[in-house]
Amino acid sequence: MQTVQPRSLPLRLPRVRPGGVLPILAILAVLLVLVAIRQPDFLAPSSLMSFLGRSAPIILLAAGQYFVIVSGEFDLSVGSLVTAQVVVAARLIDGDPARTWPVVLLLLAFGAVVGLVNGLITTRLRVPSFITTLGMFLILVGAVYLWSDGAPKGQLSEEFRRFGRRAVEDVPLLGRVPYALMVLVVLAVAAVLLMRSDFGRTLVAVGDNPRTAELSGVRVWRTRTIAFILSGLAAAVAAILLGGYSGVSFQAGAGLEFGAITAVVLGGVALGGGRGAVVGAMLGALTLELLFALMNFYGVSGALRSTVQGAIILLAVAVSATRSSSR
Amino acid sequence: MSALSLLPARRPVPGVFVALTLTLVIGWLVVLVDGGQLFNQSTTVSLLHVAAGLGLVAVGQTLVILGGSLDLSVAYVISLSTLVAAETMNGSDGALMPAIGLALAVSAAVGLLNGLLVTKFRVNAFIATLGVGLLLKGYLDSGYDGPAGTTSPTLVQTLGYQRIGPVPLSFLLLVAVTGAAWFALSRTRFGHHLVAVGGDPEVARLSGVRNDRVLVTAHVLCSLCAGLAGIYLASRLGSGAPRVGTEGLYDLESIAAVVIGGTALAGGRGGVIGTVGGVLLLASIDAIFNQLEVDAFFKQVIRGVIIIAAVAVYARRAMRKAA
Amino acid sequence: MSDPRPAPLLTLRGIGKSFLGVRVLDGVDLDVAPGEVHAVVGENGAGKSTLMKIVSGGYAPDGGTVELAGEPRVFRGPRDAQRAGIGIIHQEFNLLPGRTVAENVYLGHEPVRRGFVDRREMLDRTARLLASIGETALPADARVGRLGVAQQQVVEIAKALALDARLLIMDEPTAALADHEVELLYGLVRRLQERGIGLLYVSHRLTEVFDLSSRITVLKDGRRVTTVDTATTTADELVRHMVGRELSSYYPERAAPEDLGPVRLTVRDAGNRKLRDVDLQLRAGEVLGIGGLQGSGRSALARALFGVSPFTTGDVTLDGRPVRLRSPRTAMRAGIAYVTEDRKGEGIVPRQSVLDNALLASRAVFAARSGRAARTVRVRELLAAVEVRGAGDDQEIRFLSGGNQQKVVLARWLALNPRILLFDEPTRGIDVGAKSAIHDLVRRLARDGAAVLMISSDLPELLGMSDRIVVMRDGRIAGELPASASEEDVVALAVGTVREAAA
């Protein structure tokens, strides 16, 4: 018998925690290096600032999707919700600046109600969330076309659009800081604080093991419904920023739900719930946007976006599946 | 023990056919009051055409759902199949058979990929088929802006438009495929094993069923059905259409038809006959709305509501059964 | 032995099995002759189910040999054992409720003609099979989900026979049967015997063991105590063989009479789908032990009190006031805590930190009451007090040992200052050190005035910890025993060799 030194090795690599943000930071760093090689002026403060501003909507959608996914569900209705919000905003404001703020509030309420309905149908009627939210997708798209007779009507006010397209000019060091970026920073901090709160910790616990949560007094259905509401609210804010930036169209939100899910997966969040950080999800969205920018620099067709997203989803899920099975 | 429980397992008439009859009767009356006629030749024909396309997809979807899986990539497989078929044919009859073969082979390959992801990599079926769907979507988006290729005239004349009385050839194809699927489910080991895998994978495994092989086969068959639907759509449209699958909502509608037809989303219970009932129900609602000249967008809203409501009704029933 | 028995069908010699260094079976010998019913008895955890799993190919033994008709066999899996002619009928049936009897019986080896399943042949063969065991009333094309439990059991047996089973293992076959159905099973067992099939019959119920078997093997702590001819033994003698371990380990001192406070909880005439006529009193400061077999309603009682599957009839009063415990939340607000039996499935959120696990309940129910910081400090203190070892508070809980996980779960509930604690198998699967720490903790909680209800299958623990023991059987309370009771008394009540007066 040999005696083994009971001393732990002094030199131990920091363990990469599953669900942590280290992997996504590494990927982000690699992409930044590639960008720096190909297109160095992209990293100049002003262009970087406007890139971040442009990316704000998808980052917010990823945060919203994160709440739903980490609690063990999916929200496939966010893309259509963004479209609906933008079209509704244009028609209601119809160029009248005085209506800007009431409509902003209305959009937030609209997003929350859609989330509430998604949540209640999923949790109380036990309809699988992908069916609930795909059905909601159909309803929203159909309703918005119906309401506007097939073509967007009205227009957004300049006051409304400034959230998405204006910036604070002449900031020392940074140049111009888009309003969208400021909104993003505030909401990102709020999201991080929320995930550290009692609600946030409970939300992850629900995704991890709903049985245990239920037996510890958690109202699982309520927690998940709130996650759907948060996703709806995130879609509302994203719609306000997107509408301002790129204007009104029926394509405003097309495919955004897939982008958000891909970002969340890329950020190390487990599909099915229970693991991952909201920061990871938001970094995932940023990475995805940077990847698309890079594809653009290299002249890769933007139409291949979906393929890239599909490949990322499959790769990430297959990697985590094989890793968990090898344990 | 009550005598009732010892009755042989005659499959009861699925509720969907009752719903279908009611819908048709009410729809006929409403259309009549509106001054129209639901069962004239042209409505019936177009109803059956709609049913043929959706039906082919839904029968395949039934197989994977019976096995406890799911396929969200069917809409993209359909689009891909229309393109492969139409581009290979390129307007000539000579390449008809190779084109059909190639379209089906490509579809089967996608199904194989889905099946392997679900079984070997143990990726959740929803995610796996969504990911594969996105892969295909990217290919379609980058390669095509609009219709491409030309369907062979013979195919357009036969599968696309030929009919016997009011019944289109394509609907007969659906009947044949449904018959084959029904036969496979009730008269082959594969069918018996598929239902067992969907019902309880552990029981199946302990009884010597090779679960993975069965599920992969089901996924291949499902994609083949979607590919066949694509060939049919190419024959209707005369060319390949890169968005026909997604715009026709074949993914969600096929799942809805399966659930409305009485197949459990969790797998292990149901069948293709009910699914065809579900398809006919959805197609009838569509036809009635067309007769009433209901706005297309309003129709879409109603579709969304019907799908959610149908699944909710079945979820509730399953819950009561479990209690 | 000079018995005129035919050559044995199955012979086990020196079977041993360990899990994670714990010896579960040790040198077990056993044989079954064709047409014989050999019963295996023993209390929970004696090693019966492990032994059956070894015979049916579920586990490979660490030592010893399995011989079938004189030939040594090594089974690589359940399929292997099936092909060798060993069938097992589990307590929970392996059937597809949506399929017919014939489809279930021939699943995996459907008769085929010209490549297609021959349904008629399948039905005919099933009907013949059923007729051969005297079940002519059961149609081969009936849907299994519509059959009663007893008939489903027949289907299970037919399924085994369709694979030419020569040896059948029946694991607690009567657990789910009503009284009149047990009679039917008796007939079936006798017909199987006539066909020369050997049966290994595992049961807690001594009445049927005596009615059916020709020999009985008693297992205790993974060893064979004895094998006796049924004709020459008595129930009392069997119970004596099953129990009788010396109380070696240390248990904390019981409550003195002056420690007992007022009655906290009273349950009167209560019942639900799994429970009937439950009458119970629980006093502050006492540990009430709940004994009984698995499935006797012990866990159902705890789950009813915690509002998971509430009582549908009867009254519950708490400190003299009537309460309705409709959900875990209402139970928690009433001051009740529940440590579940299934730690992995219902006790922990595996991928969250120790701290998050410990805070789960306080966050969910009493979030508004106390400041966040103060609460976290208190939970950290509790984690230190229950001595969770080998992990920081930020470690994911799934990497902890079972004992440490259980201590974290305890800390979760202690953070709520519960007045009534329900423990379901609190020390199952936990190492010895953590076990006695949990015992000390349970007793300390009672001494501090909590009322404790503790379910345990571990008889020494039940006897060592409890101030009073209630034994359950078939969803009812079979009787109450004082702290001075013996293992024998508990087992006798649990298996039903003595009839309670009120029955």
Automatic annotation (TrEMBL), chain A:
Organism, as annotated: Micromonospora orduensis
Membrane topology field: Multi-pass membrane protein
Database matches in Pfam families: BPD_transp_2 (PF02653)
Subcellular location: Cell membrane
Keywords: Cell membrane, Membrane, Transmembrane, Transmembrane helix
Cellular component terms (Gene Ontology): plasma membrane
Name of the featured protein: ABC transporter permease
Keyword Cytoplasm included in the entry's annotation: no
GO molecular function: transmembrane transporter activity
Predominant place of localization: membrane
InterPro entries attached to this UniProt entry: ABC_transp_permease (IPR001851)
Transmembrane segments: 21-39, 51-69, 99-120, 127-147, 177-195, 226-246, 252-271, 278-298, 304-322
Automatic annotation (TrEMBL), chain B:
Transmembrane segments: 12-33, 45-66, 95-116, 123-140, 160-185, 214-235, 255-285, 297-315
Location in the cell: Cell membrane
A single cellular component GO annotation: plasma membrane
Key words of the record: Cell membrane, Membrane, Transmembrane, Transmembrane helix
UniProt cross-references to CDD domains, sorted A to Z: TM_PBP1_transp_AraH_like
InterPro entries membership: ABC_transp_permease
Membrane topology, as annotated: Multi-pass membrane protein
Primary site of residence: membrane
Keyword Signal: no
Molecular function GO terms recorded: transmembrane transporter activity
Source superkingdom: Bacteria
PANTHER family: ABC TRANSPORTER PERMEASE PROTEIN YPHD-RELATED-RELATED (PTHR32196), RIBOSE IMPORT PERMEASE PROTEIN RBSC (PTHR32196:SF72)
Descriptive protein name: ABC transporter permease
From TrEMBL, chain C:
One CC-aspect GO term: plasma membrane
SMART domains from the UniProt entry: AAA
Membrane topology according to the record: Peripheral membrane protein
Domain ABC transporter intervals: 10-246, 260-499
GO molecular function, one term: ATP hydrolysis activity
Gene3D superfamilies per record: P-loop containing nucleotide triphosphate hydrolases
Keywords: ATP-binding, Cell membrane, Membrane, Nucleotide-binding, Repeat, Translocase, Transport
Subcellular localization, as worded in the UniProt entry: Cell membrane
Lineage: superkingdom: Bacteria
UniProt cross-references to Pfam families, sorted A to Z: ABC_tran (PF00005)
Classification via CDD domains: ABC_Carb_Monos_I, ABC_Carb_Monos_II
Name of the protein described by the UniProt record: Sugar ABC transporter ATP-binding protein
Organism: Micromonospora orduensis
